[in-house]
Amino acid sequence: MSDKKETTFSDDKTTLSDVQTFLYEFNKKRGWHKGAGMNPKNLASAISVEASELQEHFQWISTDEAEELKDAKNRDKQIDYELVDVVIYCLICARSLNIDLAKTLQEKMEINKNRFKVTKRDGKKE
Q: What mean pLDDT, rounded, does the chain reach?
């Protein structure tokens, strides 16, 4: 995949593997794929930094104001980009650690299912 808009990504048609490959190729073309920053330790730190940048947008607003941001027209596009930065680093980190995200997500949700049982009463933990 090149940097040109040959492919349009969308949540309903793009796999995690597609995105990971795109990111790898993007970084490879720039010589970043083998750089000092592409080790799991530095990538984990980058995830934290980007998550903090996302959090800054919510730091001094009320819960009601945050709820209003669910509508894209009420939201600064920078929020979207900060969230995507977190996802980008998560995907790159997963690839660097050879983690199969879909498989591991499924395993983790099975753990959560057993840990947080659904009750007949409003879905709260027993």
A: 90
